[in-house]
Design goal:
Blueprint (H helix, E strand, L loop, with lengths): L1 E7 L6 H13 L4 E6 L15 H12 L5 E3 L2 H4 L6 H11 L4 E6 L1 H6 L6 H7 L1 E7 L5 H15 L3 E6 L6 H10 L9 H9 L6
Parallel strand pairs: 1-2, 1-4, 2-3, 4-5, 5-6
Helix pairs in contact: 2-9, 4-6
Length: 202
Amino acid sequence: MKIGIMGGTFDPIHNAHLMLAEYAYRKYRLDEVWFMPNGNPPHKQNQKCRTDAGSRAEMVRLAIAGREGFRLEEYEIRRKEISYSYETLEHFRAVFPGHHFYFIIGADSLFSIESWVHPERLLKTCTILAACRAEVNRHDIMEEKIRELNRKYKADIRLLITPVSGTASQIIRQKCRNGSSIAEEVPEAVEAYIISHHLYQN
């Protein structure tokens, strides 16, 4: 099976996440996309997630309910240890040897991936799909970086040019604090969950 991996804090998950996953799912004819909330990500050690893992996972569950090929993967949020991407993908490769994994990342992650722990091990486990938002990212610069990394690591990194418009979980949290509507940014069920659980309030 061809499996896409969408990792993130998902604090909260929003429509741009879903649109990017849908685009990758269709373009690469993936069998499934696994949404994997981070439990204890290394880059967030000095900036704790504002919402507990259970709530973030539930918002993902609500967001993807009824969507073909989408599933929640709780592997990282069940771990107490810091989750490194290379360890997670090596685990999946060992448990699911018949699957081919496509790790979906953003443009920023493409340019910082060599600073991650053991990028050489991560890049052996999967195909990287680097999302390029046409109105924001220079795809020629991204393509040059992809060629460099592919040569250096014998990797399989591919550009995923996407029409997905950008938004940020931080902006959604700020809107919640200001009492502004987030109906255009998140699925209706996620908005209802945020309101009913008083998330992101001062």
